[in-house]
């Protein structure tokens, strides 16, 4: 039976997840709770915290806030200020290869290289989302009417991908073949990067705010409907002409967060009312992980081997679900 | 655990519009410094020369998103959606939101954001659009620019500021002109934005439950005496001068007849008040849908209190461009005449067609 260890967090849980040696819960009110051998709370930002993302090797957590700062916290008490843009709200961060990070505020995105150098990428419209490609120093910036791919390490010409509308969150498929964005009007858009082929994935009653690639990148699981919607990305044409899987369908609540298991074809699905289920792709078998609570599930993430799930809600409820006793 | 569930469901949002120099920042600072115990999150377009003294202050580049639904007036402010979402991560840090727009901003996308974006709508509600105008310059602005007219037409509350810098006659002209565009807004006069903050905040102007009457406000003698107690010390000293335009319009007036030179002016915003007895809902709803679909881009604001045949309840309706919201409000009172009243404020509307087709919705 799964067991839940609750963790006290004050405020909207912006991001919950795992570093190498501990679990973290980053709250919009500014606290970051690290739970490992013991529990420790850090508060690097002067006021609110807007975004958080673990670095790729799991050695630390990047956070950004409305104080215009980006911090790297390791969970053992060290918080290093990596960048500062006075008076800007930095609400997007992404983790890149070998310690590189990207962050954005308004129309500008920046990449900070491991040696501390920074490079600026200006756009005509606000940055909606940031993502590094799985390999190489390649950054995707989504914005109004499309997305732009930059080779951050060189001065090569950026690649522009266009599609009318406002593009928000952005993600590369793990094999680097596709780029997917969530749009303002309750749809996903995708591009096959080899030839720029467009893909429309529509039918959502709400905005897609959470996406997660399944093991080996076979499916892209998404929130925004009354079930987790999983688009198939195997085969030559990806999701084109295919029906998505619908997991954990409920009549009374929308899915607000999804996290695919790192190994098995299973996804954790979090709902508007705080409930969390685990659903198997093959037969839609469901296991209840958490009963409804006080607020929508805002973040879900598995540890590396898929035995523990960190969760947080907008109402400040948080915890760790363990699948093994 | 936090007490987030104790917080009110939707945060009230006040939008401040007005031309550069009219006094928006002065009003904002008055609101922020008044001792009211409220904590505001303030969204400004740019940090101006006049400082704004507030903990939670965010600069936001106005960014218009067109929706991919083929509707040219269905625009929202992308930056506002994002800022509201970011603010909600610190839900316990403030009680209300104030949005200050640039002088040339179109207020419609700001308002529509609170109706068209589901996430924003779930967390925040538009309380009122407050326009600050400079008594010295507003007439010229209204002649020169569509934006100034839009701001006046769109407003629920209009603060005519810098009244100490014009004569009483000039002020009367300003009021008459503003009334000709928007007879339904509450008008206040101020010097250096000195006004009782309660007249600006918590207006519930988009709240269907608070649509109580649709009388043009200038017909109320005493200028909103309903809002001031006898001890009230604000701008009453001007009021007795303001009444000389009352006789120019009757209750059925569509407020364009003393501005004939505007008739051929493409910028000209007008209002119309339609009246009928009981309506046939099977006629009215298709009609209002069609009107807002076809004429939506030209409709700035719309409000109505309607009586449907056989329905004991008042039906209230309000809209912005193509967005229409309606609901039953309460039973008609015994002493209340069952009357349907619908007002439109817009530009280039086909007024005669509007009037005739509305009459065709009357119940047999």
Automatic annotation (TrEMBL), chain A:
PANTHER family: TRANSCRIPTION INITIATION FACTOR TFIID (PTHR19879), TRANSCRIPTION INITIATION FACTOR TFIID SUBUNIT 5 (PTHR19879:SF9)
WD repeat ranges per the UniProt record: 170-201
Record key words, sorted: WD repeat
Protein name as catalogued: WD40 repeat domain-containing protein
InterPro entries per record: WD40/YVTN_repeat-like_dom_sf, WD40_rpt
Signal peptide annotation: none
SMART domains reported for this sequence: WD40 (SM00320)
Organism whose genome encodes this protein: Roseibium aggregatum
Record flagged with keyword Ribonucleoprotein: no
Gene3D superfamilies: YVTN repeat-like/Quinoprotein amine dehydrogenase
Automatic annotation (TrEMBL), chain B:
Annotated InterPro entries: CobW-likC_sf, CobW-like_C, CobW/HypB/UreG_nucleotide-bd, P-loop_NTPase, Zinc-reg_GTPase_activator
Molecular function via GO: hydrolase activity; nucleotide binding
SMART domains documented for this protein: CobW_C
Entry-linked Pfam families: cobW, CobW_C
Chain ranges of the CobW C-terminal domain: 269-362
Keywords noted in UniProt: Chaperone, Hydrolase, Nucleotide-binding
Catalyses which reaction(s): GTP + H2O = GDP + phosphate + H(+)
Family statement drawn from the similarity comment of this UniProt entry: Belongs to the SIMIBI class G3E GTPase family. ZNG1 subfamily.
Function: Zinc chaperone that directly transfers zinc cofactor to target proteins, thereby activating them. Zinc is transferred from the CXCC motif in the GTPase domain to the zinc binding site in target proteins in a process requiring GTP hydrolysis.
Protein name from the UniProt record: GTP-binding protein
